[in-house]
Amino acid sequence: MRTRPVPAMTLRRAQELARRLRRRRMSTLLLGVGLICVVLALLFVAASATAIYLDLKTLTSLADSAAAAGADGLEEDSYYGGNGTDTAPTASDRRAVRTNAAADLSAQPSAARAGGGHDDQRSGR
User: Fold this and answer.
1) 59-62 contacts: CB < 8 A, separation 24 or more?
2) I need a labelling partner for 35 at 20 to 30 A (CA). Which of 19, 67, 77, 124 fits?
3) Which pLDDT tens digit goes with each residue over 25-80?
4) What does 71-92 look like in DSSP terms, one character per residue?
5) How far is CA 22 from CA 19, 28, 29, in A?
6) Which region holds residue 20: left if phi is over 0, alpha if psi is between -120 and 50, else beta?
């Protein structure tokens, strides 16, 4: 059986269609890679925002616990002084509050993870 020769016009059309198909495949591949990059970036942003939120909750809980412990260390007589004057708590009361708050923070297991530690020299006290 003899085959007929393919006209040059048909051959050119076939080559052009093959080139178009290759270009479309590359465009689709590039679009897919770009979409994956955007999805991964959004995933990392969401993970970072969640980590920041959880750290905020942990630090807020630690601060509340330290404030409650410090308030428990304050003597009621010095705070509710019965003489009717508006005197501030004494230095010994402040030291007791600070000591109780620091002891409470050091007893918290989440304080070590949050980088918490009591350092009076950094705060200038």
Assistant:
1) 59/114, 59/116, 61/110, 62/105, 62/108, 62/110, 62/111, 62/114, 62/116
2) 19
3) 777 888 899 999 999 999 999 999 999 999 999 999 999 998 888 888 776 766 66
4) HHHS-HHHHS-TT---PPPPHH
5) 5, 10, 11
6) alpha
Q: Are 84 and 28 in contact (CB under 8 A)?
A: no
pLDDT digits (tens, 9 = 90+) for 71-115: 887 767 666 665 555 566 666 677 888 888 888 888 888 766 665
How distant, in Å, are the alpha carbons of 63, 81, 98, 122, 124 from that of 119? Answer: 15, 31, 11, 6, 9
CB 115 within 8 Å of CB 66: no
The span from the first CA to the last CA of the chain, in angstroms, equals 103
- CA distances 123 to 70, 92, 117, Å, are 17, 19, 12
